[in-house]
């Protein structure tokens, strides 16, 4: 994600209510959308790796990574939808 595509909003120094109000007011702002898209792209790449892999042990490791990234994606969606 390039610097040009990110909106400068200091979420680290904002309270939870300020962040929630910003999401409610403006929707999911661009950094959230970009992070979710990047996570979904990673998930797609994991599936590509899984399908290309012939070693069962390596397939198992890729499946573990898929399970882990799905919970991260779900957390991002949940945090972006909270009001």
Descriptive key words:
single chain, 83 residues, mainly alpha, 3 helices, 0% strand, disordered N terminus
Sequence-ordered SSE layout with sheet pairings:
Blueprint: H1 16-26, H2 30-52, H3 56-81
Helix pairs in contact: 2-3
Describe the structure.
The chain has three helices and no strands. The protein is elongated. It is mainly alpha-helical and 83 residues long. The protein has helices spanning 16-26, 30-52, 56-81. The two termini are 27 Å apart.
In short:
By secondary structure, this protein is mainly alpha-helical.
What is the arithmetic mean of pLDDT? 77
Question: What is the helix/strand order?
Answer: HHH
In terms of structural class, how would the helical and strand content be classed? mainly alpha
Largest sheet report: none
Terminal CA distance reads 27 Å
- What's the alpha carbon Rg, rounded to whole Å? 16 Å
The amount of helix comes to over 70%
Compute the number of strand runs. Answer: 0
Q: In what range is the share of β-strand residues? A: under 5%
Helical region count? Answer: 3
Unreliable stretches covering 5 or more consecutive residues: 1-6
Q: What would the principal axes of the Cα set say about the shape?
A: elongated
């Amino acid at each position: 994600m390039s610097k040009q595509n990110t909106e400068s909003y200091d979420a680290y120094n904002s309270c939870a209510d300020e962040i929630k109000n910003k999401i409610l007011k403006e929707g999911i702002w661009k950094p959230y959308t970009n992070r979710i898209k990047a996570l979904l792209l990673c998930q797609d790449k994991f599936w590509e790796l899984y399908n290309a892999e012939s070693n069962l042990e390596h397939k198992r490791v890729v499946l573990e990574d898929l399970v882990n990234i799905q919970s991260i994606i779900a957390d991002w969606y949940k945090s972006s939808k909270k009001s």
